[in-house]
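Sanity check. The docking grid for flavin-adenine dinucleotide depends on where the pocket ends up, so I'm generating a full predicted complex first rather than guessing from homology. Inputs follow.
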Amino acid sequence: MTRPLPDALLQVPHRRDVPFSKLTTLGVGGLCHWLFEPTTEAEAQTFVRACAQEGLPWRVLGGGSNLVVLGDVTTPVLRLALPKTVQREGNTLCATASHGHIALAEAAATIGLSGLEFASGIPGSLGGAIRMNAGAYGREWVEVLARYRFLTPEGDLVEKAPEPGEFRYRWSFLTGGRVILSATAALAEGDPAGIRARVAEFRGKRGTSQPLSKRNAGCIFKNPPGQSAGRLIDQAGLKGLRIGDAEVSPEHANFLVNHGKATAAEFAELMARVQAAVAERWGVALEPEVEIWRDDPDGSSSGH
Ligand SMILES: Cc1cc2nc3c(=O)[nH]c(=O)nc-3n(C[C@H](O)[C@H](O)[C@H](O)COP(=O)(O)OP(=O)(O)OC[C@H]3O[C@@H](n4cnc5c(N)ncnc54)[C@H](O)[C@@H]3O)c2cc1C
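Predicted complex below; grid placement will be based on this.
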């Protein structure tokens, strides 16, 4: 992006040229040219308002656990750096969007509140989890979400309870320049030992089925209707296919892993090879489940 950024935006704490290898769990990508890290809701509001006034495209980043970044990103990126607070009121827990998702599930378990056990192995931030309506083992966020607070694309603050149509499988309407600031979960009192046992059971399942010792972005492709992307990839003989440091995990075919120095180009090629092989073998077009970020070839990027 060659366009100068407005002064109001530059008031918000920011860093230049931060490698996406430090901002994402997969560790692939180029540089984040402008990383804005507001430490208060007011600073986040300033960011969104300044971008809206200038018509500037931008993106929002959480823990970077559902992202594959294929190159440099020149549009401003917002990553909330709010204090990581959790407040209990009765059986509800309210946390800021910057809070670690797994840490929040652990906090609930520690105080004997049940309902977030499903979240105990899903990395990233609370904001990213709400945006994605993250879920596992038959549960998802919208089932426990009591209220949430967010900025509109114009920078107005809204706090509300979820309504029908706002959340569905791994999707929410909180895109297009909306920024989740905090969320409240309605939980239930439970037996702490039972909660811890469920958390341990879920973690154990992940430990045996996912390549957690290597950098990854979770499941890369969506399951086509009625089918398993992992099985299609596995049965196309692609486990272990490696391009440079990017590999189709031998443990779980829908996890593409970074052995340490994978480049964006290697990762893009590996994804394309998997899609082409599955299309040829099974006639199925695999769609990414992860979000893909890259600048458009003309040097701009679509934003949000
Ligand atoms: C090992 C592993 C296991 C995983 N297992 C699961 C699983 O079981 N279930 C599951 O659902 N997911 C899973 N994931 C995917 C991922 O962890 C979730 O989607 C997670 O909720 C993403 O959160 P994040 O903060 O990392 O978001 P990011 O990856 O940073 O961003 C994801 C999306 O959320 C948006 N976003 C982030 N923060 C905000 C905000 N404050 N306001 C508005 N939008 C925002 C981003 O713009 C982007 O569109 C897994 C990932 C890994 C690496």
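Relevant for the grid: Residues 25, 59-67, 80, 97, 122-125, 127-129, 131-132, 134-136, 170, 174, 178-180, 210, 216-218, 291 surround flavin-adenine dinucleotide (CB under 6 Å).
Also worth noting: The chain has a mean pLDDT of 94.
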